[in-house]
Amino acid sequence: MNSPTPGQHLVELDVSQPVWDRFFWVAPLVLIGTREPDGSHNLAPKHMAMPMGWENYFCFVCTPRHHTYSNTRRDGVFTVSYPRPDQLVLTSLAASPRCGEDDKPALSVLPVFPAKKVAGVLVEGGYMFLECELDRIIDDFGVNSLIIGRIVAARVAEDSERIHEGGDQALIHNAPLLTYIHPGRFAIIDNSLTFPFPAGMKK
Length: 203
Ligand SMILES: Cc1cc2nc3c(=O)[nH]c(=O)nc-3n(C[C@H](O)[C@H](O)[C@H](O)COP(=O)(O)O)c2cc1C
Prior knowledge:
The protein is mainly beta.
């Protein structure tokens, strides 16, 4: 154990193993939508998923073993739905193991609606929806790849749209956010405070 600051003991983690299960960290939770080769839709939850910079790019981490990866590589498009807290169980069910003909029966309980600009579906009841064209896939981060899309359409539920800063706290209170806390926990955020940015800060 090291002790760089008085009273705080740091535990050295073994970096020959993944470190990410050794402490908690906060992530979003989205459903990535793709199309299977037979034209049916696929949805898969991802927590390693976020904006790729300040412009309209979105990225997520995926392993090439997943249908989401091969579908995206083949079709060059994917969708992103941000579920609400009351959709937690359905969101998780989209990760159910495949069976029989390699299909995921759990998908039949997730109501969907068609995307507008790309071939695919979005999840009804979510609060934010993105439609993306594949920009690039970067492979070989160990067993994972980074999939990056350009956002070509975006829609937000009326109750979740930021219209003016003064209403932010009430907005989150009235339309709470679902977060994934790795490993294996979740939280519902319905309360928030203004971030204390330093005066004069520039992006
Ligand atoms: C809460 C949760 C978060 C997940 N996050 C990711 C992720 O960020 N990246 C990933 O590759 N898989 C992630 N998974 C696993 C896959 O989405 C899951 O195995 C899925 O069924 C793969 O489906 P597919 O073969 O249809 O793509 C997550 C699963 C759950 C339950």
